[in-house]
Amino acid sequence: MEYLKLCESDYRFMQVVWENAPIGSGDLVRKCNEILGWKKSTTYTTIRKLSEKGYIVNENAIVSVLIGRERVQADESEYFVERTFDGSLPQFLTAFLRDKKISDKEAEKIKKLIDEHRG
Hints:
6 helices
């Protein structure tokens, strides 16, 4: 399976895009400078690269999202569990929760998610 994966800097860029799209490319340059400390050339290079990869589109100097945050997060999470825990969600949860306490509210949400996805 081909997973959608972004390097750290591309993911941080996409967070700016997801929060602001559709956004003019000039405004995106300003936001990336403010939030990420990027120069104009870095932002335009990233716009071009992620447009070529199909994550965003830049038409008439307006940047819009083609692949949403939820899809990228789901693919990256699935890839991580597959690579690190041989696809075992129980092994992942055991490692993740090892020394943590969760609230009753969080436990109920997790139980509900399990029930919704059982089958």
